[in-house]
Specification:
Strand content: 15-25%
Number of strands: 6
Helix content: 10-25%
Strand order of the largest sheet: 2-3-4-5-1-6
Radius of gyration: 14 Å
Number of domains: 1
Largest sheet: 6 strands, antiparallel
Number of helices: 3
Order of helices and strands: EHEEEEHEH
Distance between the termini: 41 Å
Shape: globular
Length: 143
């Protein structure tokens, strides 16, 4: 099991953007978490499994509150690295192999992503309709 730690610099992205980044907006996923509404950016827990590939599972959970430190774990190292990197980059944060740090730039995880196309993932992220989601309009893709 790979465990990586993220020290977010601010709010997290809408959890659906994490899924869009990793698998795309159309991926059929099983998810669970603590978001208060679909567009919540203050969530601290997220479990996701791609239904068509049950071995692709990751879990995000808090391990520290002041400051907030998130643990990203997966049995697939590439998946833990992708999710941790994305969370750090999208929240102006940093990453570590240890919950106490030191925390470093997310780009240090690139060599652990096993060929994952980070450029394509960022294009999916920025092109997702959930970029426009708000508490008042959590489903901008339905208009």
């Amino acid at each position: 099991m790979t465990e990586l730690y993220v020290l977010p610099g601010g709010p997290r992205p809408d959890y659906r953007l994490v899924l869009a980044f990793v698998w795309g907006d159309d991926a059929n996923c099983d998810t669970e978490g603590d978001s208060q509404h679909p567009a919540d950016r203050e969530w601290t827990e997220l479990y996701a499994q791609k239904r068509s590939r049950p071995d692709e599972v990751f879990d995000v959970s808090p391990v520290g509150e002041h400051p907030l430190v998130l643990k990203v774990e997966s049995s697939a190292e590439w998946l833990a690295a992708v999710v941790a990197s994305m969370l750090a980059e999208s929240s102006a944060g940093s990453v570590s192999d240890d919950p106490c740090g030191p925390f470093n730039a997310a780009k240090l995880l690139l060599d652990r992503m096993d060929g994952f196309d980070i450029g394509v993932a960022w294009a999916r992220y920025w092109g997702s309709p959930f970029q426009k989601a708000t508490a008042d309009n959590p489903y901008p893709n339905l208009k």
